[in-house]
Amino acid sequence: MPLPTRVAAVLLVLALPACTFVKMAPGAKQVQVLATAPTGCQARGEVEVSVTHKVGFYERDDMRVRDELELLARNEAPGLSANRISPLGPPRDGSQRWALWRCN
Q1: Closest to 85 (Cα-Cα) out of 60, 67, 65, 102
Q2: Strand partners, 101
Q3: DSSP element (H, E) containing 3
Q4: How far apart are CA 58 and CA 91, in angstroms?
Q5: How high is the pLDDT of residue 18?
Q6: Which residue in 104, 53, 97, 57 sits closest to 83, CA to CA?
Q7: Residue 12's pLDDT is what?
Q8: What is d(CA 25, CA 44) in angstroms, rounded to the nearest whole number?
Q9: Please, are residues 17 and 68 in contact by the beta-carbon 8 Å criterion?
Q10: Closest CA to 47 of 97, 102, 101, 83
Q11: Average pLDDT over residues 7-14
């Protein structure tokens, strides 16, 4: 493989972790993220979301993975008439479970 091709391939791999793969869905902007389960709200269900946390031997930035997991959970909430979400545990291997709530 010629040197310029190798350099381009390396630069592409290095730029990949900077990409955000998850986009906000309509209605997700109004969904609030809570640290714990709220009181006085109706449970609307649970979801498990996942993103790529590893590309080959490269581990993606932990904060970026967490942000994308949260955004995916927020994207799911409007479909279940939820307006709040709370994590059911920490992320593990690029996956995380969330509780969805409907609060007045």
Answers
A1: 102
A2: 43, 84
A3: helix 3-15
A4: 18
A5: 47
A6: 104
A7: 55
A8: 18
A9: no
A10: 97
A11: 56
Q: State the Cα angle at 30 between 38 and 53, rounded to 5°.
A: 80
Tell the residue number behind the tokens 């479970």, with chain if given.
97
Helix (H, G, I), strand (E, B) or coil at 35: coil
Q: If DSSP states are collapsed to H, E and C, what string results for the chain?
A: CCHHHHHHHHHHHHHHHHCCCCCCCCCHHHCEECCCCCCCCEEEEEEEEECCCEECCEECCHHHHHHHHHHHHHHHHHHHCCCEEEECCCCECCEEEEEEEECC
Asked if 96 and 51 count as a contact pair (C-beta separation under 8 A), the reply is no
Read off the pLDDT of residues 71-83 as tens digits, 9 standing for 90 and up. Answer: 999 999 999 999 9
Site of tokens 């091709």:
5
Place of tokens 């409007």: 78
Q: Is 80 exposed, middle or buried (0-12, 13-18, 19+ CB in 10 A)?
A: middle
Task: Assess contact for 40 and 103: CB atoms under 8 A.
Answer: yes
pTM of the entire predicted model: 0.78
Band (pLDDT 50/70/90 cuts) for residue 35 is very high
